Amino acid sequence: MDTLAGQLCAMKLERDGVRNPQFTEVMDRATAELKATDILDGVPGVGHRTIDFALPNLEGGTIRLSSLLTKGPAVVSFFRGRW
């Protein structure tokens, strides 16, 4: 089985292949600009531990980190607003 990093890389390549290349260029440039600042210094990284927490999911239910971890590693991603 692939690693999580490998799976995420494959997903990115798949999305890059169907997205307008100009959009990908803008997103990649913005990501590089953010990485060049100190904005990532306070962001937890791979292997960092956190408290167990529960948050609403997109379907209106609640999901707990500990329940996700019983299935394997978890990636926590936060985004603003409703799209």
Structural class: mainly alpha
Radius of gyration: 16 Å
Oligomer description: single chain
Tell me the strand percentage band: 5-15%
Question: Spans of 5+ residues with little confidence (pLDDT < 50)?
Answer: none
- N- to C-terminal distance: 32 Å
Q: Quick check: average pLDDT?
A: 85
The tally of strands reads 2
How many helices does DSSP assign? 3
The major β-sheet equals:
2 strands, antiparallel
Short description:
By secondary structure, this protein is mainly α.
Describe the secondary structure blueprint for this structure:
Elements: H1 4-18, H2 21-35, E1 54-56, E2 62-64, H3 65-69
Antiparallel strand pairs: 1-2
Description:
By secondary structure, this protein is mainly alpha-helical. The protein has one domain. The protein is 42% helix and 7% strand. It has 3 helices and 2 strands. The protein has a two-stranded antiparallel ribbon. Strand 1 and strand 2 form a beta hairpin. The radius of gyration is 16 Å and the shape is globular. The model has no long low-confidence stretch (mean pLDDT 85).
Quickly list its features:
single chain, mainly alpha, two-stranded antiparallel ribbon, 42% helix, globular
